[in-house]
Structures are given as C-alpha cells and as structure tokens.
Amino acid sequence: MIFLGALFCALTSFHAGGPRPAAGKATSRRGVRTIIIDPGHGGFDTGTKGLFSTEANVALSISMKLGALIAETFPDMKIVYTRTTDVMPGGGNTIASGLNYRADLANRSRGDLFIALHCDNDGHPAGPFTVRRLIGHKYVGKGRHRHRVPIYETYEGHHTRAGTEAFIWKADRGGFKSQAINDRGEGELSDSSGESNSDSAAFDMNSPEAIMRAQLYEQKYFANSALFATLVEDEFTKAGRTSEGVFQRDEGIRVLQATGMPSVLVEMGFLSNVEEEKYLNSEEGQNEIAHNLLEALRRYQATLEGHPINTADSTTSGTGNQ
User: What is the pLDDT of residue 218?
Assistant: First the structure.
C-alpha cells in the first residue's frame, strides 16, 4: 500500500520546467480540467462474467453514473468517455485495437486524468467449482514396476474473495510513459503551478531536451497516479469495503502506459463472488461506488489546486438515488 504522506510530499516538491515562483508570488495551480472515463471491455469483449452479469456492462453503468456526478459537481470539467454503449471502442475487431483507441482518444483529448473502471475475478468461473488438492502419495505395482503416485481429494469450492484494488503503471518500465507523453503531441503541458510550457512545437520531440522533459513529467504523473489511486482506495475503505491496496502490476497495462497523463485502473469488486456481484449490479452499490470515486476526485482536485482536504474532514457522500 502506498502511503498518502509520501505522495503529498512528492507532489508538492516536484516542479516541472523552469524555476519555482518567487516567494510571496501568487500562483494559480491547475487541477483536472479534462477527465477521461474508460469503462473496461465492451462489445464482443465482455470481460469477466458473474452468474448473471458481465464486467463490460457493470463498468459501463457505473461509469455513466460517475460522469453524471462529476458533471454536477464540477460543471467546468470536460468529461470524455471511451465508450457510452456496449461496443468495442473504436469499432475494431480486436482487443488490442480497442486498447489503442482508448489511449489515443485520451491523448487527443488532452486529458488530465484517466480512470479505467473494471471488475475482478478470483481465477475460477462464477458459481460452485471443484477443487483438487494433493493429500499424499501411495505406491502401486510390483517389482521394478512399483512406483509412487499422488493421492488427491476433491471438494466443492466457494468464492470468498471480495473487495477492491487499484493499479498504476509499472514504474520500472522505463520509457513507456515518457514516450506516451511525447507521442501525445501536446502543444502545452502545464505544471502544478499553472505555468505552461508551450514550447512543444519549437523543437524536435525526440531531442534529448524533449525526452528529459517527458521523463520529468513521467515522475510527476506517477506521483499523481499513485495519489489518486490511494484516495480511491481510502474512500472505498471508509464506505466499509475491503481494499487490497494500490499496485504496480508486473504485466503491463496498455491503457496506463500509453496515456500521457496520470492514469489509474480501478477494480471495483469481484463478479466471481455472488454477494459482491449483487452489490455491483444494485442501484445502491453502483451509486455508492460512483460517490466514492467522486469523493476521491474531489480530494485529488483540491490537492492539485493547493488546498488538500484532510481525511478526517472528508465524508463520503450518501448512497442511493441522489
């Protein structure tokens, strides 16, 4: 689990592109102006399946609820969805093309934060399943044909894993995120003080200077990604959910590495667990998750703008039809 204190320190200590403002000089810190909401999977790619629902449909429903809350709470914030119906984003016929489209759309839209919403499974199909366990060995045969064989027992397994977790890109995969930042082709990158670096068009984006600047932004975006992911998991915990924490997955996640902005993938719960599947499909559960994500965004926005909200002062919004 990544600690909030270290992240806040990292955020406040990093200043990209140029000297720090002089003491006493008022600055207007930039928060999130464009947010990308990415409901996972879609179309022919259903994602993981529960007993009566699919990951693609659950992610889409919660994404639309979250977008509506953001539009109400932050009317000046631009919201870009990678999909709003049950289709593969971009209309392609492969998962890879859909992932590339999501990242390209986020970069073209000059997103300030990318949120991918997904559901999880515990490695077994939903419903009862058979577990085979080694309990010992025995010898069979005679003479030189005598040999040792394993003894197994089988029993019915049940899904008990539940809760949430969040992923950010793997920090040791050097170059992926920096390349995405440069490939974004952005004419203006702004640091946390609101000062812009609009020199992207003035020099070769593959030059050592451009690469160095992208690496600096990669450090900043990593800290921001970890911060937002931690706030999300904190809000889930306050709502009574089980949180497994924030992780850097060993296997690369395309939409996190290829987006030139802070990016987080949220696993909202386990469809393999029938009780959690019911929660993830209920109006109460979906509204609660959307409010948890909104509250995390509110705290994240306040931190970027220079007035972080103390956890003790932050209360999760109510659930239900609000």
Answer: 64
